[in-house]
Amino acid sequence: SARYSDPATLDTNDREVAEFFEKQHLLLIESATSKRFIPPSAEQEEVLAMRVSGLKDPSLLALAASTKTFSIYAPQIVLSEKTYVGPIGPASTKHYLFLLEDTLYQGSDSVFVISYRPRTGTKFEGLKGLLYVSTDGYAVQNAIAEPMEQEGGFGMKLQQLHARVNGTGPWFPHQLNTFLFLDFVGADGAGFVGIGRTYLKDIAVDVEIPRREVRGPELVMERLSTRREEAFWDSLRVDTLDLRERTTYQVIDSIGEAEKLDAKVKWLGALGNGRLPLGPVDLLLDRLVWYDGYQGFRLGAGLATNDKVSRYFRVGGYGAYGFNDAAWKYGGFLELTPWPARDLALKGYYENDVAESGGVAFPGLSRSLGPESYRWFYVDRMDRIERWGAELA
Description:
8-stranded antiparallel sheet; globular; 21 strands; mainly beta
């Protein structure tokens, strides 16, 4: 959504933008996940359903479905890749000033409203906000946090609501709210606001979880998770969609279909992985051109099948010619992925190529153009190699 300091002062174009955001949002994302956790750090989250306005297949944006967040009790809290000192961690009273602002009453219990901020004269990455502490176990019932110093044009505020599991169990988060403020975009006096709400339910603690259920990547997603009927979503939503949210889906979905956003997002994702999709095969971009002191310019091509052929296996190969050593190189591979949602693959390969003399080369590892790639300009000693093997990755 967008916010304006004074809509009456806007010119015609900006007023049209303001009217647009009065009717709908720019982006709407919904997701449902199931999460398992074994202390101290083994966890896995499975995306059960995901929907993104404008996209029919939002699987490339699966990371947005993750509910991984911070604990207000942790000694260090990471927000937007920046580490802050937690307000309830060890020795927090040395860093933070706490003030009792109010006392609320809930039945026979009291709730102390305590503000916190870095002490004057201290220098550290600190937070400010409010803590609602219940006398029922003296646990945090509500926590509000935001960085003491917001970076230029970007701000955030987070809220965690806690409650006892099933009314009598241990205290546990049941709602997470995130607010992002982008003041460096938009028209004069305008900025964008991002709001995220996460609801936790069906919480079970102190249950036995087989360790095999948390093996593999922390976030997994099946393609079918993006193909859910509206009735499925209605059964999960805490609140029904309002008019602005329904309009967002209708308008942005129409734009996405007209502009073929799915295809564009897939292309961008493929380019980030070094693969350019061409129908049922991908062009391997790292096999097109290379230069080093031994081969000179090396031109070639590489192809590999993609999900349009099968999600359970990939077959690929490459060929290249070095103009300085006047020699051909080639290779191929077969990769099996019996569980596509998990980051596990069995790969067999064959290579007839060259490798740096005395160097360490890992099969199938592409050489990307990065800050250290200039070293290859001076590598003028290589050995002819022929190898085949298998690997589990």
